[in-house]
User: Which sequence fits this backbone?
């Protein structure tokens, strides 16, 4: 790999690791969201080094531009309630830290075993296969997504619509009138009374 | 430093481990959701790296594309559930999500 490719990998990998570690360890959730943003953008850089052009753009658009923004919106909506007070966080810290160290050791063991994949007996890594010029481009990915896997694509769009409706319905909650024990269920849309309605109602009487 | 498939896989395994540790350690539900996103990103990196080293078709990148779409849907619904629980319990601590207990 060229030196610029190596530099891109080293920079993006270290930023991704730093962003992930900060995102899971910072106390303030807004700062953790910013760390997550840095992690997601470094991953977009790694995709670019792997010749995945459409995925780089989609990663930045969807993850950085939508998911992290949604997190920030929710943190802002909750206000001071988003940060847990430190009074209850030290309870049960011992077993949690023991579990975290065990999991960290397992992860390091797995990562060290995985790093030897694709390594030839003389220590250098196996060369990457030659790529066609249209590998990872928008044209090749469009062919793959819209023609070869058209059904999963349509199902994913249905999934997204269902997720939108579900998120709205769950987050909407009940109004004060609906929360009373003797309340009848209210329809979701309430037609506003307009001036013309008064004439119609008066004509009906 | 020779960067090959093993390097990418080791990096994504480490990222997945960081996300898993974060999900199990933190009790703030917002941070648990962020750790889930880190884990999904690590899996995406694995898929794209494998596709780079087996470029017969675009399956790895297409899979990662759908993983991104599903992760967006799951983040939206998860945050809606979080808002709903916050409205009742006035807290984002996962220990407080015990409405079904006893």
Assistant:
């Amino acid at each position: 790999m060229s030196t610029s490719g190596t530099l891109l990998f080293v920079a993006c990998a270290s930023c991704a690791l730093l962003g992930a570690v900060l995102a899971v360890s910072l106390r303030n959730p807004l700062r953790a969201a910013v760390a997550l943003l840095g992690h997601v953008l470094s991953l977009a850089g790694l995709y670019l080094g792997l010749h995945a052009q459409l995925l780089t753009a989609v990663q930045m658009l969807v993850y950085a531009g939508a998911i992290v923004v949604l997190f920030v919106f929710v943190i802002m909506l909750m206000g001071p309630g988003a940060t847990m007070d430190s009074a209850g966080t030290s309870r049960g810290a011992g077993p949690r830290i023991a579990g975290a160290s065990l999991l960290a050791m397992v992860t390091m063991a797995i990562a060290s075993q995985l790093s030897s994949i694709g390594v030839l007996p003389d220590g250098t890594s196996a060369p990457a296969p030659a790529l066609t010029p249209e590998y990872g481009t928008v044209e090749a990915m469009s062919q793959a997504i819209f023609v070869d896997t058209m059904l999963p694509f349509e199902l994913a769009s249905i999934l997204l619509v269902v997720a939108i409706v579900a998120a709205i319905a769950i987050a909407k909650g009940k109004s004060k009138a609906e929360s009373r024990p003797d309340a009848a269920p209210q329809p979701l849309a309430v037609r506003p009374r307009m001036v013309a309605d008064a004439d119609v109602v008066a004509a009906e009487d | 430093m020779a960067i090959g498939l093993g390097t990418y896989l080791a990096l994504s395994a480490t990222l997945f481990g960081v996300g898993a540790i974060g999900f199990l350690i933190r009790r703030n539900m917002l941070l648990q959701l962020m750790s889930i996103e880190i884990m999904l990103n690590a899996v995406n990196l694995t898929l794209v790296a494998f596709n780079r080293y087996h470029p017969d078709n675009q399956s790895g990148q297409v899979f990662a594309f759908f993983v991104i779409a599903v992760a967006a849907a799951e983040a939206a619904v998860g945050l809606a559930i979080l808002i709903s629980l916050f409205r009742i319990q006035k807290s984002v601590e996962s220990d407080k999500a015990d409405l079904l207990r006893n």
User: Anything to note?
Assistant: Chain B touches chain A through 74 residues (CB under 8 Å). Chain B has a mean pLDDT of 93. The first helix of chain B runs from residue 5 to 25.
